[in-house]
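Posting this for the archive.
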Amino acid sequence: MVKHLVESWHRSYDAPFVMYFNVWELDPDLPRLNAASPLARIRQYRNLDKMSWVLEDYFRKYRFVGMADYMGLRGSAGLVPIPSPEGSARITPKGFEPDRGEGKTPVSIVVPCFNEEHVLPFLANTLRSVQEAMREKYDVRFLFVDDGSTDDTWNSLRRIFGSRPDCTVLRHETNRGVASAILTGISAAETEIVCSIDCDCSYDPHELINMIPLLTGNVDMVTASPYHPRGQVLNVPKWRLALSKTLSFLYRRVLRQKLATYTSCFRVYRRSAVADLTVREGGFLGVAEMLGTMDLKGARISEYPATLEVRLLGRSKMKVCRTILGHLGLLARLLSIRLFRLQGSPQGTGQVVPTHPQERGKR
């Protein structure tokens, strides 16, 4: 149909037919964005492997020239460079070298990775921006934990981050789960403040700038909360959202501290409070177990309202049915531990930590 319309234009008009395409259309292995609608996925990804021979067909049949050549502007004063506006922000900051300035708070960021080779270049760009934004106050180090990946994640991690003095690359020989990877990173960290983020950046890592100050002297963990009244969820399927909120409702009935979200991997830890923590579950379930275990031990946990977006690149590693059953079993185990401890403690539940600076004093 398109070839017929182009031919019709060629017969009917003296003016040239203007064709354009996007550079990403030349890449049949373009990473698929899961957040796109079905119609958008059809438009973006269907028949990408045909693009090269479609162009070759048109190039053989018609004569093409650049727009500047057709308008007689090549080499003339008609084409002038557009100066950058003063004070414009840099998209990619200079360098990625650690800045060991005096008076800066040392912070470690743990990034668990499992089969994320296609995500790592995007992650590297994001972490450049994060480090630049935190440079004024924090001395940032990164720990990447390859959790037994079966693709080229390990080699990609070493190639992208391995030679940098502010990065440590660790590896599990077998897949042990995201919670185990986080704990491995925390154990290897040399700072008291340790953060964990998602490799796919479904939570914006720049929010660490606001989360770290909440780790005050009486707080052991700060956890991101998309279900907080001031939090937000974008493009997450409704059924998965309902499931997650139901689990949070159940955890509130079992644990001391009444949070809106219990399963986020995006957290800030006090290392001394979690370095010796042991969990039975190493995967996604272990993330909730870490929080639940700390809660029952009397740790104080603060909550930060955050935005959760569905991952753009790659696919989620969570097995839904297995995860549901696992959470129910974990809830039963945490409840039995709490009831057992309450039998020997007349004080009952512990104190709830305010979830946000503006809420301090309201409880």
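Residues 320-343 form the longest helix (24 residues). Residues 119 and 314 are 7 Å apart (CA to CA).
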